[in-house]
Design brief:
Elements lengths: L7 H5 L10 E4 L8 H6 L7 E5 L9 E10 L2 E2 L1 H4 L4 H10 L2 H11 L7 E9 L4 E5 L5 E8 L12 E4 L7 E5 L6 E5 L6 E3 L8 E9 L2 H4 L3
Antiparallel strand pairs: 1-10, 2-3, 3-4, 3-5, 3-6, 5-12, 6-11, 7-10, 7-12, 8-9, 8-11
């Protein structure tokens, strides 16, 4: 039986924090020896460059490259076919009951009916995401960072904010390999990523636990 990629015990032992809103930072989310294969297997192609430079209808502005792997609980076969073996195993773990149980316990939120959205994300030079609060149906977000090294002068840290001002930062997390961040969605859960400086790529994947339409009252 292959070794797990996510260190579930270490993740489960992480300490939840409440400033500026409920979140968890785990500095070593992956099991020893798995990081090199994860880094090497990060896809080089298949991303869609998404750009929204106007804040219309309350939607956030951003620039980022995305590859959807699971959409509303449904796998995206064409993109999953691009993944290496280690990434397919990681996806199996993220969609499994054990991982869901750990996240539910850490965040104190009932996720039994939530569906998963999972995607790979790459921020290149000048890519960013403005201060925003996630949609109400996004119950919990888990971000996993994949860069083997990252210097503060490259910018691009995740900022957990006390409000809509990007400089009103309570917690700053740089995208170094193995670090992950869980965030509960609240009305005050402001967060942002300032623009990447220089020719660097900020790599991550994220999982959103999303309330299904029947639960959130959507049609």
């Amino acid at each position: 039986m292959a070794a797990t990629i996510i260190d579930m015990a270490r993740l489960a032992a992480s300490s939840p924090a409440t400033d500026p809103y409920p979140h968890v930072v785990c500095a070593e989310t992956f099991t020893p020896g798995s990081c090199e294969a994860i880094s090497a297997g990060f896809p080089a192609t298949g991303f869609h460059y998404d750009v929204r430079m106007e804040n219309s209808e309350g939607k956030k502005q951003y620039r980022a490259h995305n590859m959807q792997l699971v959409d509303g609980g449904t796998p995206v076969p064409g993109n999953i076919a691009r993944l290496s073996g280690v990434w397919r195993r990681l996806l199996d773990e993220i969609t499994g009951a054990g991982y869901r149980g750990v996240v539910q316990q850490l965040m104190g939120i009932d996720l039994t009916q939530a569906v998963l959205d999972i995607r790979l994300v790459r921020y290149d030079q000048d890519d960013w995401i403005e201060p925003h609060v996630d949609r109400p149906d996004k119950l919990v977000t888990h971000l996993f960072y994949l860069n083997e090294r990252w210097q503060p002068e490259w910018s691009g840290a995740l900022r957990l904010l006390r409000g809509p001002d990007i400089d009103d930062c309570a917690v700053e997390v740089f995208p170094r390999m193995g670090t992950s961040v869980l965030m509960a969605r609240t009305q005050d859960a402001w967060h942002a990523v300032p623009p990447i400086t220089g020719e660097h790529s900020r790599k991550l994947f994220l999982a959103h636990f999303v309330a299904p339409p029947a639960v959130r009252g959507a049609s």
